[in-house]
């Protein structure tokens, strides 16, 4: 399993946009299954999901 940590709203938005503009362009993601939602601090949430492979 690969773990990536991206901190901050702007950094997260930029990383997602980069993927949407590149290798994810035109894909459709299946609805994810929520495995776990933690709130380790008042302004922090950690969401763990699982989903099938993207469709083109």
Rg, alpha carbons: 13 Å
The spatial strand order of the largest sheet comes to 1-2
Biggest sheet record = 2 strands, antiparallel
Determine the structural class based on helices, strands and strand pairing.
alpha+beta
How many strands in all?
A: 2
The SSE order reads HEE
Mean pLDDT: 87
Shape: globular
Helix content: 10-25%
C-alpha end-to-end distance: 24 Å
Q: DSSP helix count?
A: 1
Summarize this, please?
This protein is an alpha+beta fold and 56 residues long.
Question: How does the SSE layout of this entry go?
Answer:
Blueprint: H1 9-21, E1 33-41, E2 44-50
Antiparallel strand pairs: 1-2
Which features would summarize this protein structure in a list?
single chain; 56 residues; alpha+beta; two-stranded antiparallel sheet; 1 helix; globular
Can you walk through the features of this model?
The chain is α+β, with helices and mostly antiparallel strands. The protein has one helix and two strands, in the order H-E-E. The chain has one helix spanning 9-21; strands spanning 33-41, 44-50. The chain has a two-stranded antiparallel ribbon. Strand 1 (33-41) and strand 2 (44-50) form a beta hairpin. The chain is globular. The relative contact order is 0.19. The mean pLDDT is 87.
